[in-house]
Amino acid sequence: MQRGTAPREDGVTANALKLASHVLVQPLCKLFNKCLSSNCIPAGFANSKTILLLKKGDLSLIANYRPISLLSTIYKTFTRVLTNRLESYLEDAQPVEQAGFRRGFSTMDHIQTLNELAEKCDEFHLPLFMLFIDFEKAFDSIKYGALYEALQRQSISEQAIQLLQTINENGRTTIHIKFDKTEINVHQGVRQGDTISPKLFSACLQLAFERVNWQGKGININGQHLNHLRFANDIILISHSYIQLQRMAKDLQRQAKGIGLKINVSKSKLVTNQNTN
């Protein structure tokens, strides 16, 4: 847990938890083991405070704000434990095209790939089409049913899935806007601010990609086809053909809708090289 992270209403910070670790290790270990074995959590354990952070643009437009969940530090410590238990299974299900939220991967991997791809296409006078896709409120839109199906397909135990269901079903959030606050139930999405959310999002996104039929599509590199790259929820579709790229985009749009995601057309951009007509 990072030091200096913002606490929820309980006022417990990561710094305080670490300073008191010699006293809290045993009772927290007992609590976490009970949660893991019983698939139950204490009342209010998964509740959060949601604040809105301005990304950029017009202050009056709600679309320009990113909701961030401020969760209990003890709860986030628990989901870190849960993440560590599930990580090896979730990691095995991720392809090399996904570089987000993974040890040993970075944006530089994909930047290097795209640079080499562009250079080779220019060298051999080949057309190159790349569609940079943006999803609207990606983390907040994931359907729970799709998430649980994805976890089942990725060999996560039924017990762990039931525990995540319990967390989602019991989690409420209080939205704070200036001096007003409203408590609501949460019926979809993985919470930005929860330690397990990035892994859950990637798992669900993988379900959508498993459902697209892109065999033989993309760019042939030594007998293997490269048709997309991913960094978390940022997607790049790649092809020599504009028509093929359109079909791939429609396939992804349809399958992404099935897990709750919607492509943001206004923020998705097409990039081509000088060899295209």
Describe the model.
This protein has helices at residues 14-19, 21-38, 73-92, 107-123, 138-141, 144-153, 158-170, 197-211, 242-258; strands spanning 48-54, 65-71, 129-133, 172-177, 180-185, 219-221, 224-226, 228-231, 234-239, 269-272. The protein is an alpha+beta fold. It has one domain (25-272). It has a four-stranded mixed beta sheet with strand order 2-1-4-5. A four-stranded antiparallel beta sheet has the order 8-9-3-10, covered by helices on one side. The protein has a two-stranded antiparallel ribbon with strand order 6-7. The chain starts with 13 loop residues before the first helix and ends in a 5-residue tail after the last strand.
Please sum up the structure shown:
The chain has 9 helices and 10 strands. By secondary structure, it is of the alpha+beta class. It has one domain (25-272).
